[in-house]
């Protein structure tokens, strides 16, 4: 059975389903969904590129940031329990974890030998791949699970996770605001308007979101729940989020009257202008939407976190790279050249550098100025 067949049976049994349920099934059905079934989602042979696909440099620079965070926390060492926990949510096959630990083992031995690295991943396919990718770090990669550990002293981070959480689609008409549902017509999936769920109503009220007639948008209560859960599980330390997104005044504006929902397939991006591509071939493409940076920040602060900085990935990584000798050394051997080209890809405005935003929050941290926040609040 395909995920398409599964969704058809679901609609036949219970009637039109909210788009958020449709998207969740397309991406996360345990056996049939995109993230469960597709083994190679990113890179040249996948559907889209991430910073991890550029090479190991992204993980190396993150390792530099984690090392600084470890020093700033200055926890008491305990021989029985590792005292600095790194929690990576949406860890996939563990490639980023490997890059971080490879670099830590060689250049940050204190971090390497005194950290507890926990991977959070829903896909059983990806979790199975982690064991092979991380075989060299068996004693430092502690666990792979689907839920956060509690009482984290260290850092929780997620790279391109929140933009892939299922969203509710909403549209303002002359008759008021409606939620979009998915139904079947002539053996094809179609959209139809329906009533707002109580969850959407609460989200719109909590974050003062308003649309003009004719506008469509996405809202993601799941992202709010995720941040609240992360904040609850973080005892002391940092929350680092890297993702596509805009502040709410831009996300819900005349610039994005059709919303930001996108499909990625074989490095081709399709939006609503392509006649609802997410309704065609469900489970065969990645589906994403930009996150509401304002809502994420407000949620973190309401949950007791302090905002340390929000900036472009360009400025975040540039600050970390400026402290790397091999990236600033004028020597141009082939290895150095490859690393500088990788850095250029990660920093390039209009690409990964400016489209990705970095949000850093702290808990139990006072007067902290991270090196990566040298250009804090610089956003394009």
| Helix-strand makeup class | alpha/beta
CATH architecture label of the largest domain: 3-Layer(aba) Sandwich
What is the CATH top level name of the largest domain? Answer: Alpha Beta
- Give Rg in angstroms: 21 Å
- Uncertain ranges: 40-49
Q: What is the end-to-end distance?
A: 44 Å
Q: Work out the strand percent.
A: 15-25%
Overall strand count: 16
Please indicate the count of domains: 2
Helix content: 25-40%
Shape call: globular
Provide the CATH topology of the largest domain: Rossmann fold
The number of helical runs is: 15
> What's the mean pLDDT score?
85
Instruction: Give the biggest beta sheet.
Output: 8 strands, mixed
Overview of this protein structure:
It is a single chain. This protein is α/β, with parallel strands linked by helices and 380 residues long. The chain has two domains: 111 residues, no CATH class; 227 residues, Rossmann fold (3-Layer(aba) Sandwich). The chain is 36% helix and 25% strand. The protein is built from 15 helices and 16 strands. Strands 2, 3, 4, 5, 10, 14, 15 and 16 form an eight-stranded mixed beta sheet that branches. Strands 1, 6, 7, 8 and 9 form a five-stranded antiparallel beta sheet that branches. A three-stranded antiparallel beta sheet has the order 12-11-13. A hairpin with a 2-residue loop joins strand 6 and strand 7. Helix 4 packs across helix 5 and helix 9 runs parallel beside helix 11. The longest helix has 17 residues. It is globular, with a radius of gyration of 21 Å. The termini are far apart.
């Amino acid at each position: 059975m395909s995920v398409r067949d599964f969704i058809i049976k679901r609609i036949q049994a219970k009637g039109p389903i909210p788009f958020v349920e449709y998207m969740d099934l397309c991406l996360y059905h345990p056996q049939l969904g995109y993230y469960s079934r597709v083994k190679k989602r990113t890179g040249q042979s996948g559907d889209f590129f991430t910073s991890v696909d550029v090479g190991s440099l992204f993980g190396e620079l993150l390792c530099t940031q984690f090392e600084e965070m470890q020093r700033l926390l200055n926890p008491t060492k305990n021989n029985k329990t590792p005292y600095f926990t790194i929690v990576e949510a949406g860890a996939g096959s563990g490639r980023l974890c490997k890059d971080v630990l490879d670099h830590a083992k060689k250049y940050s031995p204190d971090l390497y030998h005194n950290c507890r690295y926990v991977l959070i991943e829903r896909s059983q396919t990806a979790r199975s791949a982690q064991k092979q990718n991380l075989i060299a770090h068996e004693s430092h990669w502690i666990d792979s699970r689907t839920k956060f550990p509690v009482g984290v002293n260290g850092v929780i981070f997620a790279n391109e996770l929140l933009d892939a959480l299922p969203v509710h689609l909403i549209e303002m008409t002359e008759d008021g605001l409606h939620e979009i549902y998915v139904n079947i017509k002539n053996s094809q999936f179609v959209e139809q308007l329906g009533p707002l769920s109580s969850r959407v109503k609460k989200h719109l009220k909590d974050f003062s979101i308003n649309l003009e007639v004719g506008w469509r948008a996405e809202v993601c209560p799941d992202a709010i729940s995720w941040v609240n859960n992360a904040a609850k599980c973080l005892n002391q330390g940092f929350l680092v989020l890297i993702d596509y997104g805009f502040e709410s005044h831009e996300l819900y504006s005349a610039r994005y009257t059709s919303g930001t929902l996108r499909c990625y397939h074989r490095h081709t991006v399709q939006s609503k202008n392509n006649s609802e591509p997410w309704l065609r071939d469900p489970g065969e493409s990645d589906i994403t939407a930009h996150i509401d940076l304002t809502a994420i920040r407000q949620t973190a602060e309401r949950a007791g976190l302090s905002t340390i900085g929000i900036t472009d990935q360009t400025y975040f990584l540039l600050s970390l790279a400026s402290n790397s000798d091999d990236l600033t050394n004028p020597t141009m051997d082939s290895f150095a050249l490859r690393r500088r080209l990788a850095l250029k890809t990660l920093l390039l405005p209009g690409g990964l550098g400016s489209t990705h935003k970095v949000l850093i929050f702290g808990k139990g941290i006072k007067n902290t100025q991270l090196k990566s926040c040298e250009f804090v609040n610089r956003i394009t």
